[in-house]
Amino acid sequence: MKRLQDKIMQEGLVLGNNVLKVDSFLNHQMDPALMQAIGQEFVRRYAGERITKVLTIESSGIAPGLMTALELNVPLIFARKQKSLTLREDIIVEKVYSFTKQETNEVTVSKRFLSADDRVLIIDDFLANGEAASGLARIVEQVGASVVGFGIVIEKSFQPGRQMLLDAGYRVESLARIASLSADGVAFVNEAVEEAKSEAVQQ
Ligand code: 5GP
């Protein structure tokens, strides 16, 4: 998504070799018009999938998740993060290791909001090692609902999350795919080259 790539180029800050700071439009201050365009793009990519719920994780997934849900006219659920929890029967719990905070959280969703006949689109702001994404998928699958796929705003393609999700059989749609982060800046994956490579493998 060109508009998102431009915004990352203009406002993204690279921290070390593997963290991108985008707190001027996604992680702290948020750009509503960009979030709306992001929601519309996810809906375009997942057209015809009969999605019944959008699921994300607090807090940075909420803005793109809500705009996607608005466009689909379905509810958004955000999983809550809690450090530790006394087990209760009405919630679904999964452990998720946080890439940025380097700690494990218990992530919970109320059983009232997901059921076996739901078709769920999972949205998140970043995909790195895939811990958050696969934790959300396990929550959906615990109730017997279906994961339609993942909608990722920024994928760091040099980290293993995307491949792990593809290997597990999931569909992954990422609006900006980053090939590398360095002091020189951000380099994006060349989607045309990637597509040609995967077509060559399939033949
Ligand atoms: P994963 O679970 O795939 O390892 O990491 C994804 C989660 O970590 C996202 O929910 C996001 O909040 C956070 N994250 C991972 N990498 C980055 C990054 O480079 N920048 C920011 N701002 N957040 C990140």
Automatic annotation (TrEMBL):
Enzymatic class: transferase
UniProt KW Hydrolase keyword: no
InterPro entries in the record: PRTase-like, PRTase_dom, Pur/Pyrimidine_PRTase, Xanthine_PRibTrfase
Keyword Glycoprotein: no
Catalytic activity: XMP + diphosphate = xanthine + 5-phospho-alpha-D-ribose 1-diphosphate
Main location: cytoplasm
EC number: 2.4.2.22
Domain Phosphoribosyltransferase: 44-157
Residues holding xanthine: 20, 27, 156
Pathway this chain belongs to: Purine metabolism; XMP biosynthesis via salvage pathway; XMP from xanthine: step 1/1
GO MF terms held by the record: xanthine phosphoribosyltransferase activity
One family name in Pfam for this protein: Pribosyltran
Superkingdom of source: Bacteria
Keywords of the record: Cytoplasm, Glycosyltransferase, Purine salvage, Transferase
Annotated binding of 5-phospho-alpha-D-ribose 1-diphosphate, by residue: 128-132
Complexes and interactors: Homodimer.
Family: Belongs to the purine/pyrimidine phosphoribosyltransferase family. Xpt subfamily.
Known function: Converts the preformed base xanthine, a product of nucleic acid breakdown, to xanthosine 5'-monophosphate (XMP), so it can be reused for RNA or DNA synthesis.
The name this protein goes by in its record: Xanthine phosphoribosyltransferase
